[in-house]
Design goal:
alpha/beta; about 375 residues; 15 helices; 8 strands
């Protein structure tokens, strides 16, 4: 983590954007499970992007949306699919857009979450950066709300992961980690590979494992921003982390020996590196545990205190380096008093992992200005 955190401090290669008459065509798939108000709000914002309208299509895969919401969405320029799955799943919704993508002359497919909002130049920047050999891209997902202490800490956690596991990894020549949204697929990969995936939870983890096996490189475009709603309540944070940790452990158990063999026999470092990442605890747990060991050994096991101090120091250094400068303000520092509560929340989620990867656990979303209680 420390090595990747330091590596993230170095700039990525930038592209000087120039006007071009060549426009790639994008299909933007948005799985929408319930949350009628949220999808209507985010769709309005996403149609504000600065890109020729003939060269992109937003596909809403509505799962359990109200009939009046479906009708309202159909009045827009979006393509709307009305679904009522007995067992909901994000990947299942994404797959429902297969026929639309197959019949259209799309070059790349973008997968968003129901609450995601693209920056206005999102597709323009993608269009300038993508080349035929780029199969999968992760764009920079960042917070669109900082209205509670939990959302501030969640936003900081996301940016730490962006720095260490995306920008830092890529600067070291390793492929970027993926998140559940803001992922861009080349059309042929979407049609030929993604349709074979089966995950209920951990949609992004399954993709990471498969591209690791194939030794494909997942790129990270740090300057292409996707605004994502951060969890506002401890209960939401617990539910979300429960789903993430469960998926991580599932794919760790399934791939550990295979990835080690792939490293030894084929030199496939990308696959092995990805499984190594699955071994890491969530950042708040890592911080909490190294802090507890530091204090505990100071009082009781002096012969282990030096080792605990090094571990604690490395963890702190990795996290501090990875936090963007914009968060070094007093109003954000105040949120740090809630870190112990967040630690206990995530610790509690570990007691409820059974079956979490086999069930659809949606993250609650809120509209602009909604009161959070």
């Amino acid at each position: 983590m420390l090595i990747c955190s330091i590596a993230s401090c170095f700039p990525q290669k930038r592209i000087n954007y120039t006007s071009s008459n060549f426009y790639r065509k994008f299909a933007i798939i948005v799985p929408a499970y319930k949350n009628d108000k949220v999808i209507k709000e985010s769709l309005i914002d996403n149609f504000k992007i600065d890109y020729p309208k003939d060269f992109y299509k937003i596909i809403i895969v509505g799962d359990h949306l109200q009939p009046e919401t479906i009708e309202e969405l159909k009045q827009t320029q979006a393509e709307v699919l009305d679904m009522h799955f007995e067992h909901s799943a994000k990947l299942r919704c994404v797959k429902m857009a297969y026929d639309i993508v197959k019949d259209g002359e799309y070059d790349y497919i973008v997968v968003l979450d129901i609450d995601n909002v693209m920056e206005t130049s999102y597709l323009h920047k993608l269009n300038q950066k993508l080349t035929g050999n780029v199969v999968i891209v992760q764009t920079h997902r960042t917070a669109k709300n900082l209205d509670t202490s939990v959302s501030i800490l969640d936003a900081i956690s996301e940016e730490i992961n962006n720095a260490i596991f995306r920008k830092g990894m890529q600067n070291l020549g390793l492929h970027s980690a993926l998140i559940g949204s803001g992922i861009v697929f080349r059309r042929d990969y979407f049609l030929n590979k993604l349709m074979g995936f089966k995950s209920v939870g951990g949609f992004d983890k399954e993709i990471e494992v498969e591209i690791g096996k194939e030794n494909l490189f997942a790129y990270y475009f740090d300057d292409i921003m996707l605004y994502d709603e951060k969890t506002r309540l401890f209960s939401e944070f617990q539910s979300q982390r429960r789903r993430w940790v469960s998926a991580q452990l599932f794919y760790l158990r399934k791939n550990l020996l295979q990835s080690l063999w792939a490293l030894v026999s084929k030199g496939n470092i990308h696959y092995f590196n990805k499984i190594l990442q699955f071994m890491l605890l969530p950042r708040v747990l890592m911080l909490g545990i190294t802090t507890i060991l530091f204090v505990f050994n100071f009082f009781f096991f002096h012969h282990l205190f030096k080792l605990a101090s090094i571990s604690f120091g490395i963890t702190i250094a990795a996290l501090v380096i990875a936090v963007p400068f914009k968060f070094y303000k007093l109003k954000y520092f105040k949120a740090l008093i809630h870190v112990p509560f967040l630690f206990l929340t995530v610790l509690k989620s570990l007691t409820k992992l059974k079956g979490a990867n086999r069930n659809f656990i949606p993250t609650p979303h809120h509209t602009k200005g909604e009161d959070i209680k």
